[in-house]
């Protein structure tokens, strides 16, 4: 290798080393969400990025609501981000379903139950 190739290889290495990594940049938000729900079911933990993203970096409706409320998951518990008739809080805390997917929704018998009463059982 001549000097020009070595210099180009060193420059490429430095650029790659200093380039931002998407997963590192967003893991803070994921960790904040998980901290808000320490006892949430493993199904939601296994969904990882798809709770907030359609495809990284694009946000789904739940991710947009989460971002718009200052990254406070509890601030959007009473919203129904996916429009399936179940609040985000009910889907996360009670039903273990994805609050970003209208195909994934609650199973709680709501007859005579209010969301506040259900939520109180799990906090």
Structural description of this entry:
Helix 5 crosses helix 6. By secondary structure, the chain is mainly α. The protein has a two-stranded antiparallel sheet. It starts with a helix and ends with a helix. It has one domain. The model is unreliable at 19-25 (pLDDT under 50). The protein has helices spanning 3-18, 22-36, 42-47, 61-68, 88-95, 115-122; strands at 53-55, 58-59. The chain is elongated and about 75 Å long. 21% of the residues are buried.
SSE diagram, text form:
Blueprint: H1 3-18, H2 22-36, H3 42-47, E1 53-55, E2 58-59, H4 61-68, H5 88-95, H6 115-122
Antiparallel strand pairs: 1-2
Helix pairs in contact: 5-6
Annotation keywords:
two-stranded antiparallel sheet, 123 residues, 4% strand, mainly alpha, single chain
* Structural class assignment: mainly alpha
Annotation field: number of helices: 6
Count of DSSP strands:
2
Beta-strand share of residues: under 5%
In whole angstroms, the N-to-C terminal distance is 64 Å
Tell me the helix content. 40-55%
Strand order of the largest sheet: 1-2
What order do the helices and strands follow? HHHEEHHH
Output mean pLDDT: 77
Outline the low-pLDDT stretches.
Answer: 19-25
Short overview:
This protein is mainly α and about 120 residues long.
């Amino acid at each position: 290798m001549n000097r020009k190739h070595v210099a180009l290889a060193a420059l490429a290495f430095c650029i790659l080393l200093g380039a931002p990594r998407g997963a590192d940049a967003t893991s803070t938000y994921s960790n904040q969400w998980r901290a808000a729900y320490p006892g949430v079911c493993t199904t939601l933990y296994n969904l990882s990025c798809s709770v907030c993203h359609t495809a990284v970096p694009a946000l789904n409706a739940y991710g947009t609501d989460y971002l718009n409320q200052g990254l406070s998951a509890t601030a959007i518990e009473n919203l129904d981000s996916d429009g399936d008739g179940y609040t985000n809080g009910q889907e996360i805390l009670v039903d273990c379903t994805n609050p970003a997917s209208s195909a994934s929704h609650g199973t709680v018998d709501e007859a005579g139950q209010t969301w506040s009463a259900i939520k109180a059982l799990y906090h």
